[in-house]
Design a protein that fits this description.
The complex is a heterodimer of chains A (267) and B (113).
Chain A lengths: L2 E4 L2 E6 L3 H10 L4 E2 L5 E8 L2 E6 L2 E7 H18 L5 E10 L2 E6 L6 H10 L3 E4 L2 E4 L12 E4 L23 E4 L15 E9 L6 E5 L1 H10 L4 H16 L3 E7 L2 H12 L1
Parallel strand pairs in A: 2-4, 8-13, 13-15
Antiparallel strand pairs in A: 1-2, 1-3, 4-5, 5-6, 7-8, 7-9, 7-10, 11-12, 14-15
Chain B lengths: L13 E5 L2 E6 L4 E5 L1 H6 L9 H12 L3 H17 L23 E2 L5
Antiparallel strand pairs in B: 1-2, 2-3, 3-4
Helix pairs in contact in B: 2-3
Classes of the chains: A alpha+beta (267), B alpha+beta (113).
Chain lengths: 267, 113
């Protein structure tokens, strides 16, 4: 059985359906590893429906894309839970010139789309979901598949045709692997150079402006999964980090244009 | 008019100074707030020992502004902090009439919230 690793979470997948197994291996390629799994997900396909179980617990059931997305969400939650000694930001991140560009944001803010656009424009990939911060302030990559919905497809033309597919229906989700665009997936900790508070709004004009260290601290703290575990120590760590990075506010209505502007700024 | 409220920071609220601006974390709601530089200077004074009017007298003296102006500004700060559950003992119902004047904005929300 092939094993996958999501931060400290090691899992395997099992299915008797060869086509489904190949599809899942493609989706999970960014998480391939050699360790022994500590959890096994069992997949069963019935026509266009998929059921996912871990042990006796049903994780997901329904149309393939929805079930796979729910399975990946489950993996994310388990992966983040394995990080005990570090603050974890809800953030996307890419690497530019050897330094991390971190985009903390709530769900729906468009961070995965902006992350995919940055990778398409030449950045290397760290994550589209979670950034554990090591005590020295470096970011630990979590190079899971980039997940984007159909609303983002038009601005991510470079990725067209790269997402694995299963089933007869047009895709409503893409699972993207930066290796398909010949971009690196980083696995080693990276020094953070920039923090960007990004906000997408349809039709919104592009605006990119500096953000104070206090605003950068507040942005990261507002998007830390586990700030209560660290309390004041965590807040101080974020304040210290904010003094050593460049913070920016980004508003945009087009991820591809925003990615070009951001890379122009930081290169 | 005397404002007898004695604003006190809610126990457990953590504050860190980042280049002259305080970033606050309220653990009960797990909410993060950012104060502007003026409010950041006033924050340490909110220990429940002084009334809004007494605080205004001190602030007016230190900053060379009118007491009434200082009182209005501090009352506005107290109300915005109370509204975000950062104060333990600030009852907006006992606040004096603001006389319809615009109130300053002291809390700066994170840009992505």
């Amino acid at each position: 059985m092939r094993c996958f690793r999501a931060l400290g979470y090691r899992f395997g997948i099992q299915t008797s359906d060869h086509g489904l197994e190949q599809f899942l291996h493609e989706v999970l390629a960014p998480l391939s590893g050699d360790d022994e799994p500590t959890a096994i997900y069992r997949f069963r396909r019935d026509d266009d429906a998929l059921e996912v179980r871990r042990g006796s617990t049903r994780i997901a059931s329904g149309p393939v894309e929805r079930a796979v997305s729910a399975f990946l969400t489950h993996v994310n939650v388990q992966a983040i839970a394995t990080v005990e000694n570090s603050l974890v930001l809800h953030a996307a991140a890419v690497a530019v010139s050897g330094r991390a560009l971190v985009i903390p944001a709530q769900p729906g803010a468009g961070k995965s789309t902006l992350c995919a656009a940055l990778v398409a424009a030449g950045a290397d990939y760290l994550t589209d979901e979670a950034v554990p911060l090591l005590p020295d302030g470096r970011a630990l990559p979590y190079p899971k598949p980039i997940v984007v919905g159909s609303g983002s497809f038009p601005v991510l033309e470079a990725w067209a045709g790269t997402s694995p597919a299963l089933g007869r229906h047009p895709a409503s989700v893409w699972w993207l692997d930066p290796a398909d665009l010949n971009r690196a997936r980083w696995c080693e900790p990276v020094t953070i150079g920039w923090v960007i508070a990004a906000r997408y709004g349809p039709g919104q004009p592009l605006e990119l402006k500096p953000m104070s260290a206090a605003a950068t601290t507040a942005t990261m703290a507002s998007n830390a999964f586990n700030l209560p575990r660290f309390g004041r120590t965590g807040l101080e760590q974020l304040a210290d980090l904010s003094r050593h990075v460049s913070g920016f506010e980004l508003q945009h209505g087009d991820a591809a244009r925003a990615a070009d502007a951001v890379l122009h700024l930081v290169r | 008019m005397t404002d007898r409220r004695r604003p006190r920071i809610r126990p457990g609220v953590e504050a860190v100074d980042v280049d002259g601006q305080l970033v606050l974390w309220e653990p009960h709601s797990n909410q993060v707030h950012r104060l502007d530089p003026t409010a950041s200077l006033l924050w340490p004074l909110l220990d429940g020992s002084a009334t809004v009017t007494e605080l205004a007298l001190d602030v007016a003296d230190v900053f060379g502004i009118r007491v009434k102006q200082a009182e209005r500004d501090i009352a506005a700060l107290v109300e915005s902090l109370a509204a975000t559950h950062l104060l333990d003992d600030a009852d907006p119902r006992s606040a004096p009439d603001s006389e319809g004047r615009p109130t300053p904005r002291y809390l700066e929300d994170p840009p992505d919230s």
